[in-house]
Amino acid sequence: MRTIDKIYLDGKFVTPHGTDVAPLHNPATEQVIGQVRLADEVDARAAVAAARRALPAFARTTRRERQAMLRRLSAAFTARLDDLKNAMIEEYGATKVLVDAGMPRAAAVFDEAADVLDTFEFSRTDGRSTVTLEPVGVAAAITPWNYSIVFVAQKIAGAIAAGCPIVVKPSELSAIQTQVMTECIDAAEIPPGVINILTGRGDVVGEVLTTHPDVAKVGFTGSTAVGQQIMRNAAATMKRLTLELGGKSPAILLDDADIPSAVAAALTGGFMNNGQACFAGTRILAPQSRIDEVTAAIRSGVAALRVGDPADAATAIGPLVSERQYERVQSYIRLGEQEGATLLTGGAGRPDGLAAGWFVKPTVFTGVTNRMRIAREEIFGPVLVVIGYDDEQEAIDIANDTPYGLQAYVFSGDRERALRVARQIEAGTVLVNTVFGDPGAPFGGVKQSGVGREHGAYGLAAYLEPRAVTTA
Fold it and tell me: Which segment of the chain is annotated as a signal peptide (predicted)?
């Protein structure tokens, strides 16, 4: 049993003022594996005060000094890569395949931010004015449980590159991962107050961070509903916002696509991270002329997926993060049947042979219309829907008929045709004949999928404000 009873404030591990304790579970076994003492409002205000004290000196650091900090953070994360992976497998249920491929991103984002600083222009002349990009001030970051370490690293990297001290509130479901990550940050010897980490509840710590007058910028990754609440909280003090929210991403299989390879890619994109990915391609749009080929390929592809122990390299899909999330996804599977969709594969309950753990059968519905709730609402589990279309324009119309617009996928045997379709999709990112994004590209959504962008120069700019000095 682990006991996590410290937060990271002003460059030190300290006992929180908060006394509430939350259990930590292994989602593959449902067993309690530890507990975490949660920060409260007093801790949140203390963290903001520490960041505010650090702001004047940190805002004046040179790009070379900030690059050196970012390189130290990258080295510290790299040194603990195996510990970070193991924590994510045990506490979250991420598969070994996923963490082996994805966890190096936690270190890479710091190097990428340092590289951006090499060429980023902080000053320019416009007319008679000199315009400089200045740190926006104290930043706050609120991150979810589904890819906690990388999300935290991304937000810290942007803030450090810009010269903004930051207060981070990771999910309380990710406390073991947060502990290892915070040890990495401490090892990087960042000046006191520049990075502060508080594990606490959103309605307690998050409420303080999104309303505190000394917080100038909030970066959030999570649900659209919570993002809307953060916007309301931030309005009174006009905080700058970057909100990466929910999605219901379409995976468009054009009628000239190689169906076996396109379906294999679509299943990878739909089921990645155990289905708990905001950008998952959960709506597969298939041409009616080839619907039988598509459904046959899906049935055989899903049958080959192994669900089980996330530490096993042969496992493709691990458990969901919590019992609450498991029950939510089960309710959507039952809803799909109630709405009249056809269950192609999967269904309610655990996969055969798994008596414990929050495992969900990889589930695919056919006969789905875009009006059904299972086609419109973010389920956040391994549940996909297949929607048929008659022609290219109808596919584009269905893809765009959603309140979301985070990511989309287009598969075609004709690259130029795929690009033409991609340019008509309402999404922050459109991937053509791949399900793997470009880490150097800006990431974020349109419509109810969010505001602003992360990564690269766009992500750095989100932590800066232009100041014009005009002479006579």
Answer: none
Residue 433: left if φ>0, alpha if ψ -120 to 50, beta else—which one?
left
Residue with tokens 């409002």: 41
Cross-strand partners of 123: 132
Task: Round to whole Å and give the CA distance between 256 and 259.
Answer: 8
CB 443 within 8 A of CB 455: yes
CATH architecture of 2-245+447-470: 3-Layer(aba) Sandwich (3.40)
Token output for 320:
């969901």
* Cα atoms in the Cβ-side hemisphere of radius 13 Å centred on 424: 16
d(CA 413, CA 392): 14
Judge residue 75's burial from the number of C-beta atoms within 10 Å of its C-beta, 0-12 exposed, 13-18 middle, 19 or more buried: middle
Identify whether the C-beta of residue 271 lies closer than 8 Å to the C-beta of residue 382: yes
Q: Which CATH superfamily is domain 250-432 in?
A: Aldehyde Dehydrogenase; Chain A, domain 2 (3.40.309.10)
The count of C-alpha atoms lying within 13 angstroms of the C-alpha of 179, restricted to the half-sphere facing its C-beta, is: 21
CA distances from 361 to 269, 309, 418, 466 (A): 16, 14, 32, 50
Q: Is 388 helix (H, G, I), strand (E, B) or coil?
A: strand
Q: What is d(CA 133, CA 57) in angstroms, rounded to the nearest whole number? A: 17
- Residue 142: helix, strand or coil by DSSP? strand
Using DSSP's 3-state secondary structure scheme, residue 11 falls into coil
Residues serving a catalytic function are 244
pLDDT of the chain along its 472 residues, tens only? 899 999 999 999 999 999 999 999 999 999 999 999 999 999 999 999 999 999 999 999 999 999 999 999 999 999 999 999 999 999 999 999 999 999 999 999 999 999 999 999 999 999 999 999 999 999 999 999 999 999 999 999 999 999 999 999 999 999 999 999 999 999 999 999 999 999 999 999 999 999 999 999 999 999 999 999 999 999 999 999 999 999 999 999 999 999 999 999 999 999 999 999 999 999 999 999 999 999 999 999 999 999 999 999 999 999 999 999 999 999 999 999 999 999 999 999 999 999 999 999 999 999 999 999 999 999 999 999 999 999 999 999 999 999 999 999 999 999 999 999 999 999 999 999 999 999 889 999 999 999 999 999 999 999 999 999 999 8
Q: pTM of the predicted model, to two decimals?
A: 0.96
User: Rounded to whole angstroms, how far apart are CA atoms 145 and 266?
Assistant: 24
The domain ranges of the chain are 2-245+447-470, 250-432
